Automatic annotation (TrEMBL):
<dbReference type="GO" id="GO:0008483">
    <property type="term" value="F:transaminase activity"/>
</dbReference>
<protein>
    <submittedName>
        <fullName>L-glutamine--2-deoxy-scyllo-inosose aminotransferase KanB</fullName>
    </submittedName>
</protein>
<keyword id="KW-0663">Pyridoxal phosphate</keyword>
<dbReference type="InterPro" id="IPR015421">
    <property type="entry name" value="PyrdxlP-dep_Trfase_major"/>
</dbReference>
<dbReference type="GO" id="GO:0030170">
    <property type="term" value="F:pyridoxal phosphate binding"/>
</dbReference>
<feature type="active site" description="Proton acceptor">
    <location>
        <position position="186"/>
    </location>
</feature>
<dbReference type="InterPro" id="IPR015424">
    <property type="entry name" value="PyrdxlP-dep_Trfase"/>
</dbReference>
<dbReference type="GO" id="GO:0000271">
    <property type="term" value="P:polysaccharide biosynthetic process"/>
</dbReference>
<comment type="similarity">
    <text>Belongs to the DegT/DnrJ/EryC1 family.</text>
</comment>
<dbReference type="Pfam" id="PF01041">
    <property type="entry name" value="DegT_DnrJ_EryC1"/>
</dbReference>
<dbReference type="InterPro" id="IPR000653">
    <property type="entry name" value="DegT/StrS_aminotransferase"/>
</dbReference>
<keyword id="KW-0032">Aminotransferase</keyword>
<feature type="modified residue" description="N6-(pyridoxal phosphate)lysine">
    <location>
        <position position="186"/>
    </location>
</feature>
<keyword id="KW-0808">Transferase</keyword>
<dbReference type="InterPro" id="IPR015422">
    <property type="entry name" value="PyrdxlP-dep_Trfase_small"/>
</dbReference>
């Protein structure tokens, strides 16, 4: 997955354009910037690549989620449905706005179970936020039908699945809004950065204003701009945006290499009795940044994970006990440990996460092991890795 593996002369050239003028900010200083508008250039290219009408670059994937929610009018007391398997940014971005995260089970896609989503809807529900974890997607068709029926927003977190598609549409472009991260370990990186895409002019204008203190961005004098509403500072710098331009040019090659490496490993693991694979919803194509598979039981999955590291197979993950990605590790959320008082809406409405039944999620996550797919591996190295994985798994099963 990591775009940092291909960081090179192209990224350095883009950054040097910015360093030469010294205009590190994306707005203003027209005369000094030698015609370089890196953030704007990246936004235009990214919107086109994601087949969306608008793109707003921001400072991170986490801020992209917050900006997207704010742009669509989600705030205090609104409930946002999110999965138990994700990254902490999901509930962080929601709670930042005083909104309430509602955690629901995943299924064998390792993303939101549409039935669990429908069961969690209340009069306060405003948004469904599927997270396309580890390169593959939620059942967007089923989720969109639910959102249309109940008049809810569909906000895709595509931070880990850039380049994947559903019904031939780029992931992130299917819902009302889509979010991406360009942090240092993502498929393409800016160092730090994120993006919101949408086909709604209204959300795009709101996002543009919200991420820059509510500035209306009309005219050439920042000091004289009006502020239609309150905002915040989630801006990206020109330096980070410049890196992203070069990385975006490499996306297709990165995806092709991931697919080759994934396929080699998958074909070998398909010959191992007892191994099954994560379900990709019909109409979807993953971005091949991870290969996720199930073992017959939780006990065996734990042992396989250990055996993989004993066989020197690096970069394999057992998310069930990983602090970052599964509710088991989020003691701070379950006990609402915040630095300062939370909004009363959050305190009153949030589930008792210590006692909610997530046994359906446990049943899938407990059996899941994922292998990262790197792009720097040679074909011979991938073949070796696949055989070592097979030996490690067979030593347990
Ligand atoms: C990385 C990631 C984010 C947040 O991105 P940052 O740029 O690190 O803030 C959000 N959601 C998911 C699923 C991610 O993997």
């Amino acid at each position: 997955m990591p775009g940092f593996e291909v960081f090179g002369a192209e990224e350095r050239k883009q950054v040097n354009d910015v360093l030469q003028s010294g205009v590190l900010m994306r707005y203003g200083f027209d005369g000094m910037r030698n015609g370089h508008w890196k953030a704007k250039q990246f936004e235009t290219a990214f919107a086109q690549k994601m087949q969306s009408q608008h793109c707003q670059l921001v400072s991170s994937g986490t801020s992209a989620l917050t900006v997207a929610l704010a742009a669509a009018g989600v705030g205090a007391g609104d409930e946002v449905i999110m999965p138990t398997f994700t990254f902490v940014a999901s509930f962080e971005s929601i709670m930042m706005l005083g909104a309430v995260p509602v955690l629901v089970d995943i299924d064998d896609t390792l993303t939101l179970d549409p039935k669990a989503v429908e069961a969690a809807i209340t009069p306060n529900t405003k948004c469904v936020m599927p997270v396309h974890m580890c390169g593959s997607m939620a059942d967007l068709k089923a989720l969109k039908a639910i959102c249309d029926k109940h008049n809810l927003l569909l906000l895709e977190d595509a931070c880990q699945a850039i380049g994947g598609t559903f019904e031939r549409k780029p992931l992130g472009s299917y819902g009302d809004l889509g979010c991406f991260s360009f942090d240092f370990v993502k498929t393409i990186t800016c160092g730090e950065g994120g993006a919101v895409i949408t086909n709604s002019k209204k959300y795009a204008v709101n996002a543009d204003q919200y991420q820059d203190h509510g500035h209306d961005h009309v005219g050439n004098d920042r000091g004289a701009e009006t502020h239609p509403h309150l905002g915040y500072n989630f801006r990206i710098s020109e330096l980070n945006a410049a890196v992203g331009i070069a990385q975006l040019d490499k996306l297709d090659r990165i995806l092709a290499t991931q697919k080759r490496n994934y396929t080699i490993i998958r074909e070998v693991l398909e010959t191992v009795k007892g191994v099954t694979f994560r379900r990709v919803p019909e109409g979807g194509e993953e971005n091949y940044s991870f290969l996720s598979f199930f073992l017959p039981s939780q006990e065996e999955a734990k042992k396989v994970h250990k055996a993989l590291s004993e066989h020197n197979v690096e970069a394999c993950f057992y998310w069930y006990t990983n602090n970052w990605h599964y509710i088991n590790g989020w003691e701070h959320l379950r006990n609402l440990r915040s630095l300062a008082p939370l909004s009363s809406e959050i305190k009153n409405q949030i589930q008792d996460l210590n006692h909610t039944d997530f046994s359906k999620s446990d049943a899938w996550m407990g059996r899941t092991v994922s292998s990262l797919i790197k792009i720097g591996w040679t074909e011979a190295e991938v073949k070796q890795r696949a055989e070592a994985m097979k030996r490690a798994i067979q030593s347990v099963l």
